[in-house]
Amino acid sequence: MVRFVLVCLLLGLTANVGAQEIKIEKSTEKIVYQGKSYYLHTVKAKETLFSICKAYGVSVDEVKVLNDKKENALSIGEVLRIPVVEPFKSIDDKFYYHRMKPKETLYSLSRKFNIKMKRILKDNPEYDVSRPIAEGSVVKLALKQIDRNVLEAELRWEKRQAKEIQQVRSEEMEKYEESYPNTFPPARDSLEGMEQQAVGDTLFIVPDIAHEQRHVKVALMLPLYVKENKLPLSEEEIPVDTLGVNIRNERWRLSSRTEPFLQFYQGVLMAVDSLKRLGYTIELHVYDTERDPNTVQSLVGELNLLSPDLIIGPVYPNTYKAVAEQLGNRTIPMIFPLSSRGGDSLRFPNFVQLNTSTASLVEEMADWIVANGAQAHLINIIPDGGARAGDESRLTNLVQNRLQENGMSDMTNCQWRPQMHLDSLRKIMKPGVENIILFPTINEAAASRTLPVLSALADQFRITVIGFPDWLKFTSIDEEVLFKLNVKMMTNSYVDYQGDVAKKFSAKHRNYFYSEPSNVANRAFDMVMCFIPLVDAERGNTLNALREKDISGAFTRFRFHPASGLDGLENRGLYLLNYNRNFEIIVKPIIK
Asked: Is pTM, for the whole model, over 0.85?
């Protein structure tokens, strides 16, 4: 990023700031860079980054990022780029812009300002009388139509409120500078510097921010099918919202439809418990969506009144869509947590898909193969007729296209046949170089027929087979085959059950729930540990902050990209998992 530096002598670091407030003379010099306006502020003696940002009403961390600063220290004469923040205009020559207060509705505004509902809806087509409007949303009211006396009273009230809020903020800032004269507010607008920390006996990631009290409202929407879970001799329902449910206790009859989502819920509760120990106050609201859009629609009104900071779920496309379409505030992130097939939900601007789709996965695989296959011999093995072609088969075409674009040699194609003879395979291998083999299938039967045969050549040739994360579920293929073939696959989640992190997580899970954690619980834990600190730090800017972030959780990788041609976000954070020839499993994040 371009930095603007004034050439002058470095006179030293800024002096310590005491309780006395420093008067900052705001710059009038502006520039426009990539369509955005910035002030150019020249640092003077005794000015701090904190006092400068306070004067301009901007975030310390936003200014640090804009100016490529890693530390808070400033130099006299240094020129900072400061974003121009336009003040909110509550009135212009046509409209009064009213910010919605708690429990206000379009109907109550109509009564209060003596303006017809039909006119409000005409000027605000994005709203609907059948749906609650989120607190803080702006409604336009035509000046010619509203009661002027009511408007003047409302503007006076807003002015008093703004003054009180500014006074409270100024007092808080002064107290901070008194306590920390040569430091600045902690990084709350960035996910850089994620680190592992221990709380109790669990390791997890948290942003490098101070541990003051924070409050985050979370709506968890899962198909728990509460009504299907009864005591055998009673109509009593299982209290699924307690930490004490023992799913191994035979007196409970746990529905098979409930079990995977209860495991997800367990992972959420473990993360909430860990974050509470860090000073977060988490208000968790759990909704049983079942798998019924009508059930979900009946919950939307309550959800809009709640106005959560984060929504996890629903988990099925049809129930997710029912919520997303009726949600009043489209800046609230809605996580699609378990499926990689968001369908047309990807069009919603607050859609966040946690799993990488197969289409995106093969694109990432193709990029890696071409980048690492310049000196290798590439072979494409076409599975036999018993393996149904799916999105995985796109890998071959993507690699071929990228090879042509980069002027590289084409691949050698080999159609697999039943009882394939080793001599046929030897002819397509090259000695002295790495033979990178694409085998684009997730069909276990096809893999069990092909991979053991290929492994018989591992002593004569250097072979690397590119696989898919679904192969981790195969039970008919010995791990020794994967090691011999130096199998490499990409996945956005991996649990090393022999590692310290997984062992400590499992121990804590057993202590809470008397059961071993599933992969679903691991992923739910990582998701909450990532999103709640981010939502707390970014609030209404969370969706923008998610773009291009690269984060490793305890078990999951996150790197969110806009879906192709659509508004939603998809996780394309991946690990490269390698069953190497030394019989070791190496897991490395793929950094872009």
From this structure: no
